[in-house]
Design goal:
single chain, mainly beta, Methylamine Dehydrogenase, Chain H, Immunoglobulin-like, 5-stranded antiparallel sheet
Amino acid sequence: MTGALLFYTDGVTIWDKNHVVIDTGLSGGSGSTTSALIVPKPANSGHFYVLTVGGSGNPLKYTLVDASNPSSISIVTGQRDINLASSCNDKIAVTRGANCDEYWIVTKKWRSNSFNRIKLSSTGFSSINIASPGGARPDRNGGQLKFSPDGTKLVYANRYLGWIQLFDFIPLTGAISSKRAEIKFNNCYGIEFSPDSKMLYFAVANTGVNADIYQADAVNPLSPRIIGNLSNPSGGYSSGAFQLGPDKSIYIARDNENSVAAITSPDTNGVACNLVPNAITLSAGTNGRLGLPSHYYSTNCPDGGFPDPSSQPEDPCRCNGCNQDAEQQNKELLNRAGSKFFTVPSTNNNSSCSINPLPINGNCTNLAIQNSTKLKPCFYFHWGDGNNDQIEEHDTEVFYLTVCNNYNDITFKGLRITKITLIPTVILDKIHIVPDRFVSLDCLEPCSCQTREFAMITRANDTAGNYTLEVEYCYEEIVIVSSANNGIAEFPITITED
């Protein structure tokens, strides 16, 4: 697992990592609390089930996605929008089984006190049966259904009928016990467990009012306490879905608002759990609705809980970067660099480097192994907002460094800028370059460029003069990329007469 995006869905349409539609017309819907949830196919790396439900008595369905080749994701033939359970409301929950190579999928029956309970293993779906735990109430659409991360509790919010119900769950057998606790709570929609499974969080989802955010003991939630409040300036629903994230924060959707709230320390008791009303600001002109992307965590399995970056296997190419939209961000930086008036190639670039790297030549013909014995990338310095622009003694000059690989047969792995200095050196508080060290460029692939943004801040009257901007860099290794990836091996064989 590298954490890189493969595909995503809203329960109706599936897009690949490049936001290209793979399929559309699935059976989820914008009116569902949990329109879709993605589950890996056990013992089959690269295949995923997309579970969808439309609510209001419609069936739970699955679609099998083949993502074994991230560049060519497809729907498995004959495995699209297949009925899995009938007469469901609009919520799905998933947890791992006791032996960790199985999953339990649970939905609530439409206007019933029963649950659909389904086991998924390496042999497929089985044990599709009905569980009717004592004390369960009939349900309608609206309100989340969640497993605790340790897989021992199941909770659901019944918004329209005004109940929160908590049940014990046994991962070994999939048994849903009699009701553990029940809270009379009108208009509850979002609900979530803390990462350690000891706390429960929920809120009112009503129009025209602010939302009090509640915390309760997940074992005995009968005495919830308010840990904060979300304002509701738009007058929409006061809160939406709650979702535990991989960073162990609980995120809260805000209807018709330009931000997402978060509880950043949800394992902590009381207001110290830290409710942040505007934890994430959405893009300009974009407002949230009631939902958030749904997924599950199962801390009872070593590979099903919260990602630990230090324990994740390293991407062998290290080309994915730290975030999923690194490629798009690099394009934006390249465009900004191209808008600068001056582009200066490094004085010690190889002779094969072009004068200006932009636009990028994606079909370069230089061969590193034949043309050079000292292999290094090309560097370019972009600065200036006009023909008369100068770097002055009291100035903040935004500049860009572009690094290009102009070879078509090698990749620079683990490339990073280690230090940027002015020669001759200047006292730091007079001229400051930000950042000035440890800037990662990850993988520089054949015939490609990466750009990073910097600022030079000058604040002194005695710094005028000529300098050299010195950029120190390193890379871990060079990998030869060859199109000759097949061949024939021949061996002389002699067969003699009998």
